[in-house]
Amino acid sequence: MDGHINKKHTVAVVGAGVAGLRCASLLMGKGYDVTVFEKSRGTGGRLASVRLGELSVDLGAPWIEPVSHDFRQWLMMQGPHLSLWRPNASDFSLNKVFVDRQVWVPVPRSSMITRHLLQNINFHPSVRVAVAWPDRDGVLLRDERAVALGHFDKVVIATPAPQAAPLLDAVQRYRQKAEAVVQKPCWVLLVSLDKRPEKLANIDVVEGEHKIFARIIRDSSKPQRDGEVWVLQANDAWSSDYVNLSPETVGQVLLAGFQEWLSQTLQPTAVRVHRWLYSEACVNDEHLSLWDAESGIGACGDWLVRGGLEGAWRSGSSLAEKIMDEHA
């Protein structure tokens, strides 16, 4: 497994989040011919960033807190793409400010980590893969219009469980695993303001118990960020109860809730609402990754192992090792 493979094996990775791109980059480094397909316009997954007016804002995981030595060492290798952040944090009572927290954030935006992983890999954004089926020529991928995307020796499914299930149809035991996973939704409101709210003059992060919110983050407090941008993440219960509301209505309710909590009327200069339909996965039966050598189809992602972003990274690493072990 230490050397490069003799023959260029082709691998398709479906999903350009941390798990998929970690797997892709490891395989690319060992000489595999890797192609990544992503339904969105760019990379990121849980580390996605979006535009809000003239600014870029982190939409998903607000930071990275490494637990294992291996993941921490890998983060340290990201060099200029990562920076330490020490946010002032509080709960929703705002009675006490905690200043001893240390987390890592990609710079100048979250998606820099996945963009760095993607370098030199064939990338096809805005392509929704709908079918992965093995035949005598390999594994055939088709998009949502049934257009053939090509045959590949191996296919890695690195999407949320509900999206992975139909792509794992050729390996029914894996499809059933994916179908059994519950992934919670999460509504997020991004708000750009003309000035910082008075009550949050010295606070960067608020999290804890609230009837609507799980966490409020001043994105502009992170290293190499500009503006006065706040990210409001609704809690699990609220997001689940109102998962089918229109984005416009959700934005109005979350902004009203923010103003009520602050006891202050705000004048947003820009707002953006996003629904993570498949946010945190409820993992009951852990598997680092899934690999079926007979079909050439496998899966990785944070729905297979606990640990959020670190779990996704571990899952992608695990699947790459299983694929490479076949050619050791």
Task: Tell me about this structure.
The protein is of the alpha/beta class and 328 residues long. The chain has 2 domains: 10-47 and 114-182 and 284-325, 3-Layer(bba) Sandwich (FAD/NAD(P)-binding domain), CATH 3.50.50.60; 83-109 and 185-279, Polyamine Oxidase, Chain A, domain 2 (Alpha-Beta Complex). It contains 8 helices and 21 strands. The strands form 6 sheets. The protein has a 6-stranded mixed sheet, with helices on one face. A 6-stranded mixed sheet has the order 6-15-16-17-14-18. Helix 1 packs parallel to helix 3, helix 1 runs parallel beside helix 8 and helix 4 packs antiparallel against helix 5. The longest helix is centred in the C-terminal third of the chain and has 18 residues, at 308-325. It is globular and about 65 Å long.
- Name the CATH class of the largest domain: Alpha Beta
Number of domains: 2
Radius of gyration: 21 Å
What is the CATH homologous superfamily assignment of the largest domain? FAD/NAD(P)-binding domain
Low-confidence stretches: none
Indicate the topology:
Elements: E1 10-14, H1 18-29, E2 33-37, E3 49-52, E4 55-58, H2 69-76, E5 82-85, E6 89-90, E7 103-106, H3 112-118, E8 122-124, E9 129-135, E10 138-143, E11 148-152, E12 154-157, H4 161-167, H5 172-179, E13 182-183, E14 186-193, E15 205-207, E16 213-218, E17 229-234, H6 236-241, H7 247-262, E18 268-276, E19 281-282, E20 290-292, E21 297-299, H8 308-325
Parallel strand pairs: 1-2, 1-12, 2-8, 6-15, 12-21
Antiparallel strand pairs: 3-4, 5-7, 9-10, 10-11, 13-19, 14-17, 14-18, 15-16, 16-17, 20-21
GO molecular function: 4,4'-diapophytoene desaturase (4,4'-diaponeurosporene-forming)
Keywords: Oxidoreductase
EC number: 1.3.8.2
